[in-house]
Amino acid sequence: MPRFTHQIYPLETGFHGPTRPIPNADLVKQYEFDSFVPFKNSADNSDQKLHEIAQQIRRDIIRELVEAGSGHSGGPLGSADIFATLYFGGVMRYEAQNPWWPGRDRFILSAGHMCPVLYATLANAGFFPKSELLTLRKFNSRLQGHPGRDMGLPGIESSTGSLGQGLGIAVGMALADKHVDKNGRRVFALTGDGELSEGEIWEAALIAAHWELDNFTMVVDRNYCQIDGRTEDVLKLDSVADKFRAFNFHTIECNGNDISELRAAFAEAKSVKGHPTCIVAKTFMGQGVSFMQDDYRWHGKPPNKEQAVEALKDLA
Amino acid sequence: MPRFTHQIYPLETGFHGPTRPIPNADLVKQYEFDSFVPFKNSADNSDQKLHEIAQQIRRDIIRELVEAGSGHSGGPLGSADIFATLYFGGVMRYEAQNPWWPGRDRFILSAGHMCPVLYATLANAGFFPKSELLTLRKFNSRLQGHPGRDMGLPGIESSTGSLGQGLGIAVGMALADKHVDKNGRRVFALTGDGELSEGEIWEAALIAAHWELDNFTMVVDRNYCQIDGRTEDVLKLDSVADKFRAFNFHTIECNGNDISELRAAFAEAKSVKGHPTCIVAKTFMGQGVSFMQDDYRWHGKPPNKEQAVEALKDLA
Amino acid sequence: METTTKSGILDNMTVATNGAQIPAFVTNGKKATRFGFGEGLVVLGEKYENVVVLGGDITGSVMTSYFKDKFPDRFFSMGITEATATLVATGLALSGMVPFFATYGAFASCRNTDMIRISCAYNDANVKIGGGHAGISVGEDGATHQALEEMAIIRVLPNMTLVVPCDYLETKKATIAVGEMYGPAYIRFGRVDVPSFTREDTPFVIGKAQIFKDGNDAAIIACGPMVWESLQAAYELENEGIHVRVINMSTIKPLDRQTIIDAAKECGAIVTAEEHQITAGLGGAVAEVLAQESPAPVEFVGVKDTFGGSGKADELMKIFGLTSSDIKAAVKRAMKRKR
Amino acid sequence: METTTKSGILDNMTVATNGAQIPAFVTNGKKATRFGFGEGLVVLGEKYENVVVLGGDITGSVMTSYFKDKFPDRFFSMGITEATATLVATGLALSGMVPFFATYGAFASCRNTDMIRISCAYNDANVKIGGGHAGISVGEDGATHQALEEMAIIRVLPNMTLVVPCDYLETKKATIAVGEMYGPAYIRFGRVDVPSFTREDTPFVIGKAQIFKDGNDAAIIACGPMVWESLQAAYELENEGIHVRVINMSTIKPLDRQTIIDAAKECGAIVTAEEHQITAGLGGAVAEVLAQESPAPVEFVGVKDTFGGSGKADELMKIFGLTSSDIKAAVKRAMKRKR
Ligand SMILES: Cc1ncc(C[n+]2csc(CCOP(=O)(O)OP(=O)(O)O)c2C)c(N)n1
Ligand SMILES: Cc1ncc(C[n+]2csc(CCOP(=O)(O)OP(=O)(O)O)c2C)c(N)n1
Ligand SMILES: [Mg+2]
Ligand SMILES: [Mg+2]
User: Fold this and answer.
1) In chain A, whose CA is at the least distance from the CA of B207?
2) Which candidate from B16, B162, B198 shows the least CB-CB separation from C309?
3) Which among C189, C221, C157 has a CA at the least distance from the CA of C64?
4) CB–CB of B144 and C142 under 8 A?
5) Fewest Cβ atoms nearer than 10 Å: which of A134, B307, C21, C90?
6) pLDDT tens profile B159-185
7) Residue C166, min C-alpha distance to chain A (Å)
């Protein structure tokens, strides 16, 4: 039986006019973005190597944000180790040079506001030139303030930014892979913890468990911070692990700023049969930058020039 | 400091024109609706008495539905014991003759489609003439197909019918009572089990637990049935109790067709401090009517005339 | 009458085109449009292996049950999770499927509005949403279940396609057409039996209106089952010597602007007829085009910014002013306003 | 000029009424309308003990933080649960409170549409929803956060009141007025600083439009910060001898139909200006009234059925055609179409 087919990726309908933002040439030189050689995605990368990559991602997050003049620092810095493990620890299958390779695993950033870490990760993996990181949030940039699929940025599978939506999209992808195409692909998604208060998270959880999507792994960035304060003050969420267990997920708690624990968690997730997996990764917002560490006030602020210098020192 | 005040109850804006449906006079006589004396709400009502009231409610549900020619049989019959206990077992405080008495406890039917049981309960408590039950679902009836607050029917606190909404409304009422007016009022809500798949249920649960609404008691009509089939086939929900426990509710499981177990559950709920309570009441859809018992196909169907005769025999 | 053959619906009425009395409801019988949706899905399922359907626990009411029975491996139950079912459909679409999710229109457009806006429309995902139980004719279930706002809500979202077919057969065609186009789309259909009057050879093209009856004294622009009511009104008016054009605006977005502009220029008076709020729906869309292109008097037939209520379908259609006689009166009002 | 005193905003511009060049932005400075909302809530909190506010985890962006700091006992954090926060507000309202829930407009109108429809509107519950971050001027956050559809979505729902004040001070007045009326209401405000030009004595009445500048060559009907852009356009047109009326349509529902009809009759050409999709919003509402009452050519200034994107606020306003010069051009197009 034939398929109804149509090109899905890349979509490039989001540009308004021909102008494109041009990266600041001095910074491109200063950061040596031109000469950058992408990191390799390999299970052999040592924990040490992945830690270095995570620090590199953090430095690039700072560079993105100070240049953008707005955007989210805390969550991206806190989750850099998760991204380093996913993209460089051999967890996800992808071809940076062939970004829309049909066989690729899928990653959906449900917490769309955390896109600076995803952009930095993709650039460090060679999906697009690192210099483009300096166009974050500028008019007609492929690096939108929240991921916009309509800009065709390699590695961006879906638009997100409205909390609670990405998870259901990822579940739909896992459903297609496991029950229709049966192609052995794995689907990953990352949510914030404040984001868990959106009811669609729990609807998606019911659906993922009902359909036994063992090809689906979600990570909760459990940093106990959201915009208005500590999560337990804004809306009590503990115990997140108990909740996902009660929703019939295979649930793993780990230190989300520890590469080896993350690696073990993803390995365990891969081995589970008949249940989706939720990795509750305990992180610190702003991890690695002393004056941002564990401070919810850095949820949505960029560093100013002086703070950026400080931050890059901490991350050197 | 003054309050901004305005009449809230009753609202009567939902009538379209002056015509009102007239109950079938023969049936009113046949059912002896005219001479009916309302039941008393009292903690002293014996379990036996409450059981009789529940059976009376069931008979009236059949009468409502066969006359309406459409509507929901299964859930209402299955939950009649819950309503008998709530309204006649001294659990809820109300004055049927003074239905909008400010001191009344509140009840919200989140599963709006189950209104035939609420209407029958209210009529048997004397909120309005039993003959009006025969106007269910007719044009300009105060007994709408789903509860319509705009018809001003005594005892209807809110319009419901879109699943998953009533619970949040009840939580808001409990919040007002506990944290603003501090008036010692209790708020009750009933949801279906299929209804639990709506994410707003879990948002409301987070909010109720966060604000420690121990004046709030919700009952889940756990009949394992919804429109498309058994709940575990449509979307797996077990364990409902584990889920509410993980959401920091005081959770009680009981036989929802057993008056004494229901009584004990409501008594326990009243004694809990610092947590909202969820009573997971295991019921049978269509309870009491042999050919409807535990059969999801009776979710949304009324009995025809012959079936009604059969049903009333079973319930005699 | 050229358009009668073009539109291919009227040979059971040709008597009417010369002004004679026509028997009301000379049709191919009555059938609810939701059956056209259900059958259209089966046709798509037979044609394409990647058409999948998501159930919202009312598969028997919106007739996704047909697909479920025929293609159980491509039917996925989502429970009662309209918002997330829409997101799951998005994920399926981004993985190359052609997913249909259907439930009652009130929930298919309001319970998931943010999801349609961002995950379907902004994402340009190939998600198809079926909204059943459209309009006041839902009947006894009452106001909560009577969808009267979806056309406004879907129409305002960029990238969306919105089709509102007029009878059972056109709904079947529209469902297939929606499945064979790329992009997020919403199809609106109803619960109760309504006259079937279009034929196999009646053309249906997304974005193209059909002139079902010619006339230059006034034009009725209608969608859904109100098209039949409009034809009734028009043929009754023929007896009074009033020649009214009847336009089946089966696509609300993208809108066939030219047919609207021509109607205004050639007829000078417009009536819109929809089983929807008169605010921001078909009437609003037509008013916007005319204001921009060719101002003309318009009379709106629809629900007048109120909620519905329980009652029998036909009883409610009368009470809420949605019958052929309401349309007739509106035509006369509109003609009086001609300049 | 009678209306200048009536509307009480123009004495810093009276030069302009006789056609002279006016300095752009002769204002009382700039301030975002969201601050008016935040301050209005505090005034209400001081006045009534039963005014309560629900937080949606962005209290610092929609300025409910003012109320939170002043009345911590009447502020309730709901986390990120827009749908259920709307339901909790309903429960509070049915218990006699005057609850305000505010978040970004995209989520205050789309994430809870079914809740607003059934629990607030159908229920006629006294719920007040504040929708911030309205329009493209949200800037860098991009399309998901740029609310451009709320006016259509709220306007189509029966029983709703929808106000869209034009500057900081009017937003403060509107917030208080919304708190002192009974019934479900939505108030729309923005993130970025915009000119403050109304005065304490500028009247604000829900349901009543204000004529901010007289003129009979054409009329601009605008809402929100687009009113200031319209005044700029109008005063620049005075230099070309074109006398344009500027109407502040600060309430979208219930709509001040008479002021619209008068404008059409007296000016013969209309321009609508809104930081919203041109479909089904203010332009649509005006087009509906004119089609029913007094057909006239209308040019729509607004976002043309596309999503937004990241960028600087002023940059985006230019690119999406939402500046005074876009309005000026629209006025000239509309006047050309006069009959
Ligand atoms: C539906 C929706 N509501 C509100 C917002 C605004 N918002 C963006 S991030 C955020 C806080 C999210 O907290 P969390 O998930 O813990 O992320 P973190 O602060 O840890 O980065 C909020 C409320 C949004 N983007 N989407
Ligand atoms: C938001 C919403 N979606 C769908 C429906 C249609 N509907 C009415 S009842 C029902 C099934 C509910 O199942 P359950 O809560 O178990 O009630 P029961 O069948 O046991 O009476 C559905 C899907 C609705 N009323 N509201
Ligand atoms: Mg967090
Ligand atoms: Mg059930």
Assistant:
1) A235
2) B16
3) C189
4) yes
5) C21
6) 999 999 999 999 999 999 999 999 999
7) 26
Mean pLDDT over residues B230-248, rounded?
98
Chain D contact set for C118 (CB, 8 A) = 144
Find the radius of gyration of the CA atoms of chain A. 18
Helices (H), chain D: 2-7, 14-17, 33-47, 65-70, 82-94, 105-110, 113-114, 150-155, 168-179, 226-239, 257-267, 282-293, 313-319, 324-336
Which residue positions in chain C have pLDDT lower than 70? 1-27
The CB density around residue A233, as the number of other CB atoms within 10 Å, is 13
pLDDT of residue C28: 75
- Contact: A247, B243; criterion CB under 8 Å: yes
Rounded to whole angstroms, the Cα distance separating C185 from A168 reads 19
Give the tokens for residue C191.
């619960």
Q: Does C133 touch chain D (CB under 8 A)?
A: no
The string of pLDDT tens digits covering residues A211-259 is: 999 999 999 999 999 999 999 999 999 999 999 999 999 999 999 999 9
Q: In chain A, which among 57-86 make CB contacts under 8 A with chain D? A: 68-71
Q: C240 Cβ partners below 8 Å, 6+ apart? A: none
Q: Which of A13, A148, A157 sits opposite C94 (nearest CB)?
A: A157
ipTM: 0.98
- DSSP 8-state symbol, B39: P
Tokens of C65: 């049950």
DSSP character for A44?
Answer: T
pLDDT by residue (tens digit) across C291-318?
999 999 999 999 999 999 999 999 999 9
Gap between the Cα atoms of C191 and C196, Å rounded: 14
**Burial letters for B64-74: b for 16+ Cβ neighbours within 10 Å, e otherwise?**
bbbbbebbbbb
Contact D47, B2 (CB under 8 A): yes
Residue A117 one-letter amino acid: V
Claim: this prediction has a pTM higher than 0.80: yes
Can you tell me the mean pLDDT for B57-66?
Answer: 98
Rounded distance, CA C72 to CA C55, Å? 11
Ligand number with the minimum distance to the CA of C61 = 2
Question: Of C92, C101, C21, C26, which Cα lies nearest the Cα of C57?
Answer: C101
Q: Reply yes or no on whether the pLDDT at B242 is more than 50.
A: yes
Task: Determine which one of D39, D82, D149, D275 is catalytic.
Answer: D82
